[in-house]
Design brief:
The chain is 72% helix and 0% strand.
Length: 292
């Protein structure tokens, strides 16, 4: 019951967040749309950060990762000046919603309520030595930096919704296939990990079953593939949008150079045999040459 209560509180908080975003969006209608979108995103982040401070739990931000990108797309798509091809826009939005529903569902079933806070947040804040440093780490590293990264990788999707283009083409089909494959990869890997963690006998053991036998983080591979799909969609409008690859690179760095090393370090400290598992199991790509 406590989890349901806490989820209702989170839902109410994010509904208020959406309302603030819409209000801010309408008040800044004369600003360049991409700056406008960024400012609205930051305002939403500040609100969720204040909720995190109020509840003393930065896991308020966990839901932000999956529920805010679709809302940003809605703001752009419904803008008065938006002129994207309708069928392409529907396809893009459907792909993003598929990803968002999967990720939100996985978070809901794994979250234990406000009595739980992501261990990474606890570790990062635990390393601080003053209230100012604590607040800085909480706001900038846990909230704002991920927001900027997700914003940069959401923009390619928004380009398709905002700028005029031809109808559905080969790039769109390839992007859709990439995203569907990415989401399926995440669904399968998430379910395998969920079942593994549900068994108390697996405590402090290495997850080396299913997709996790061939890759240490198949779910993160799916995440990178999803955001790459946004770039492919944007290239379907014009190849000159290749400069948007910067967002995909930023997301790769965030996942491969920040999140994965942090998680692997923790696993090496907690799970017997993890270092041996790492020797022939890549962090992202699959090593199908492995034998059991």
């Amino acid at each position: 019951m406590n989890k349901i209560r806490d989820l209702i509180v989170i839902l109410i908080g994010y509904c208020i967040c959406f309302y603030l975003m819409m209000m801010s969006w309408n008040l800044m209608f004369e600003i360049n749309i991409w700056l406008r979108l960024f400012f609205v995103d930051v305002i939403a982040t500040i609100f969720i950060y204040l909720c995190s401070v109020l509840f003393r739990n930065s896991s308020w931000y966990d839901a932000y990762w999956s529920v805010i990108p679709p809302f940003l797309l809605i703001l752009v798509w419904t803008d008065f000046n938006a002129d994207g091809n309708f069928l392409r826009s529907v396809l893009v939005f459907a792909c993003v919603m598929l990803w968002a529903i999967r990720l939100t569902y996985n978070w809901i079933r794994s979250w234990d309520g406000f009595n739980h806070e992501d261990w990474r947040y606890v570790m990062m804040k635990g390393r601080t030595s003053s209230k100012f440093e604590f607040a800085s780490v909480d706001f900038f590293q846990i909230h704002l930096i991920p927001t900027v990264c997700v914003y940069l990788t959401t923009v390619p999707f928004c380009f398709v919704l905002y700028y005029p283009s031809n109808g559905v083409g080969i790039f769109d089909l390839f992007a859709t296939l990439t995203i569907i494959s990415a989401v399926i990869l995440q669904i399968v890997s998430d379910q395998q990990m969920y079942k593994f963690r549900q068994d108390p006998n697996n405590a402090n053991k290495v997850m080396d079953k299913g997709l996790w036998f061939y890759s240490r983080h198949p779910n993160y591979l799916g995440e990178i593939l999803f955001w790459s799909g946004g770039l492919i969609f944007a290239l379907g409008s014009t190849l000159s949008n290749i400069w948007l690859i910067g967002g995909t690179i930023v997301m790769y760095i965030l996942i491969a150079r920040a999140s994965i090393p942090m998680m692997d370090k923790r696993s090496a400290e907690k799970r017997d045999g993890f270092l041996d598992y790492c020797k022939n199991t890549p962090p992202l790509l699959f090593n199908f040459s492995k034998t059991k």
